[in-house]
């Protein structure tokens, strides 16, 4: 019987951290680099475990967003992946449900960058495609990220300030893919 576990990066053993990286490498067919993994660290990991091994993963990390003339505390979902041999069994839905709970209870908004494979999952779960321009607060200033406009999704948190989906959404800076 698979078990679900939510754990802070700080509480993972070295072996557990390596097992998550192996799952992500496998799930993304090698298109998952050190920056991508670093982006998934520092917050909370949601895991589905089978015989102690992770078969599904999602991480929620805090990022700052600039939108509608204010700074938003965002729960950014990273590293959503299910082992290729375990897909279509609801494990992505399980890790996303817990990631969404973390976003809803702890942040002003949720955000993520959807892969082609992930789009349907997020749409089905009520995540909203961003409709306006996306940007990054780069060291040189606010910079457009046109290539990320179509893959950026947000989650509206109840009781929070209203997002203007056609407005500009800027993320904080990081090495590797900024979204
Ligand atoms: C995307 C991924 C995580 C989905 O895993 P999964 O095990 O197939 O997902 P689930 O079985 O939990 O599916 C959850 C629901 O989303 C739906 N769903 C999943 N992928 C979908 C897609 N591409 N299009 C439409 N619906 C989709 C399923 O039909 C299911 O709906 P249901 O509950 O009504 O049956 C998996 O394919 C994967 O790891 N892909 C490679 C890594 C990747 O691209 N991750 C996304 C990063 S943004």
CATH structural architecture? 3-Layer(aba) Sandwich
Q: Which ligands accompany this protein?
A: coenzyme A
What does the radius of gyration come to? 16 Å
Strand residues, percent? 35-45%
**The CATH top-level class label:** Alpha Beta
Cα end-to-end separation: 35 Å
Q: How helix-rich are the residues, as a percent range? A: 10-25%
User: How many H/I helical runs?
Assistant: 4
CATH topology: Aminopeptidase
Stretches where pLDDT is under 50 for at least 5 consecutive residues are none
What is the mean predicted local confidence, pLDDT? 97
How many domains? 1
Q: What series of H and E elements makes up the topology? A: EHHEEEHEHEEEEE
CATH superfamily: Gcn5-related N-acetyltransferase (GNAT)
Number of strands: 10
Any overview of this molecule?
The chain is an alpha+beta fold and 179 residues long. It has a single domain, classed as 3-Layer(aba) Sandwich (Aminopeptidase), CATH 3.40.630.30. It is built from four helices and ten strands, in the order E-H-H-E-E-E-H-E-H-E-E-E-E-E. Strands 1, 2, 3, 4, 5, 6, 7, 8, 9 and 10 form a ten-stranded mixed beta sheet that branches. The longest helix has 16 residues. The model has no long low-confidence stretch (mean pLDDT 97). The protein binds coenzyme A (COA).
Helices and strands in order, then pairings?
Blueprint: E1 3-8, H1 14-27, H2 34-39, E2 44-50, E3 53-67, E4 70-82, H3 91-106, E5 109-113, H4 119-124, E6 128-129, E7 134-138, E8 141-144, E9 152-156, E10 169-171
Parallel strand pairs: 4-5, 7-10
Antiparallel strand pairs: 1-2, 2-3, 3-4, 3-10, 5-9, 6-9, 7-8
The chain binds coenzyme A (COA).
Coenzyme A binds at residues 27-28, 80-82, 87-93, 114-115, 117-118, 120-121, 124.
């Amino acid at each position: 019987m698979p078990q679900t576990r939510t754990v802070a990066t700080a509480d993972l053993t070295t072996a557990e951290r390596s097992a998550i990286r192996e799952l992500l490498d496998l799930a993304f067919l090698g298109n998952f680099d050190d920056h991508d993994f670093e982006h998934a660290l520092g917050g909370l990991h949601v895991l589905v475990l089978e015989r102690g091994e992770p078969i599904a993963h999602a991480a929620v990390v805090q990022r700052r967003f600039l939108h509608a003339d204010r700074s938003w505390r965002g729960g950014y979902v990273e590293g959503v992946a299910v082992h290729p041999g375990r897909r279509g069994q609801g494990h992505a839905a399980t890790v996303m449900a817990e990631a969404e709970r973390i976003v809803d209870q702890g942040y002003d908004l949720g955000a993520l960058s959807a892969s082609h494979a992930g789009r349907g999952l997020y749409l089905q779960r009520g995540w909203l495609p961003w409709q306006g321009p996306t940007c990054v607060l780069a060291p040189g200033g606010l910079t457009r990220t046109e290539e990320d406009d179509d893959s950026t999704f947000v989650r509206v948190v109840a009781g929070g300030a209203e997002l203007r989906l056609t407005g500009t959404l800027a993320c904080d800076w990081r090495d590797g893919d900024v979204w």
